[in-house]
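Please check this one:

***
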Amino acid sequence: MTERRHSLTREAIEAGAVEQMMLNCGIPIRVLSEAEREASLDGTLAAHPAAGSDIWLFAYGSLIWNPTIAFAERCTGTIRGWHRRFCLSSPVGRGTPERPGLMLGLDRGGSCRGVAYRVPSQAARDELTVVWRREMVTGAYRPRWVHVAVAGREVPAIAFVVNRDGPNYVGAMPRERMVERLAVAAGRLGSSADYLFETAKALALAAVPDRHLEDLAAAVRAAQANRG
């Protein structure tokens, strides 16, 4: 049976499409309750190092090319102590239980260049509620405050780092296996390959290209071509 595809729009997120996708996937996945998500957002906002000021959000994957939020400013930025890695198994969104895909997470060590969005303080809760309904569905990520270098200064920003204790954390894996999973997996939000391709393209367009992702994308395209 062909799976019904979902478009990850703001309207779909606000309607609970991501949550329903997980609840109806046919495999046991723990979905956070609305109360748990609210508590997570409340705790994150309460820990804001500059209370009352605008909120910065650091994007390193699909939030770059599909932010689904309103923002006042968009800058390239760099964080230290975390790096972008395909370290999350995706048995639903970008894969299936039989052919799980891979998603990006921020894992420990190194550095990461991406995009930072400034959200006005008066709109922050409404906009971040959309982000939490998108990213904090299963607890695969943990929101935390990081320092991001933007436009010659450092600002505190929210980033979603990988939950190493979560069931879908796979850590590092052999490159050949990673390429194979990315090349073939597709789920209700599309293919893992397209997720990789769009992220690599968006980073290049933002003038912060990721050579590792570009090399990986080339390898995935070659693997797809070889499969015919």
